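Hey, resending since the last one bounced:
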Amino acid sequence: MRLSLPDFGTPVQRSTPLRFPFLPHVPGGTSLHPDPTSAFPPRPSAYWAGPRHLAGDDQRLYDVVADTLAGLGWTTLTIVRGRQELDDDAEHGHLLRSTVLHISPDGLRWAQWCLADQPFLLGDAPIAWQFSARSEREGSADWSAYVTSGLPGEALAAFVTALDARDQPGAGHKDPEAVLDAVTSHGWRRDSAHHGAADPACASYIEYCDVPPFIQDGDPRTLSTEPDDVGPLGWQAWCDPSARLPYLWAASFSTSAPDDLVAVFADAISSTQPVLRHSLPESTRSHLLLAPAD
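The structure tokens again:
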């Protein structure tokens, strides 16, 4: 199932490479450069890349988050569904699917890697991670967050670290200004027509708006919306570098997700610190500023 994302103003025509302010030097003082092919022959095997929100997940989204959770002491469980005997006809046998569930020591928060099942899409990208938290061990989730592949793992590592450190993970905390302050401090601009902000090149966005259907939340009011009512509101963020290409990544936070945790995510995704990348997304490669890392 595909989940839609809201429109954010008029699409920007991007016939020339994007330019981004606030990008610092990488370790060692090397400057980032907009054209690595001509500047660094032969092509390096790794780059320092910025801005972070366009740098992709380096095809390591699971590893980055799972390693962070393991370091925090979370338990890992693999859930396998389906069955396939060794002598089954591969074409007609049962399809094996598995997801990986990470549970915090207190049992109040968990993270599920669900990309193997690809249950639905957020924007044009498959959901990769789902995060949830609750107030009591016997209760259901008070809120949830969903992120797709392509999202920089550094932002999720910061998010789950803050989630782990929160004394009351299920308790909502509303401070929308903290979310917007986090991105505007890194040069993003508030949008006057929406409760949100965009990066200087209008390639990535964050907005408090209607969340897509089926985003799970513990507030019963999210289940009783009439057809003509405004749906539940929550934070959404996404990267849409070109109207002709799919989203690079998307994230959706349910209506009860604590704003302080969303602010941590927003701060990390909009950070101006370059990140190490061995694999660059094709949709944003020409827009990135790069420096060789080898």
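The mean pLDDT is 83.

Sorry for the duplicate.
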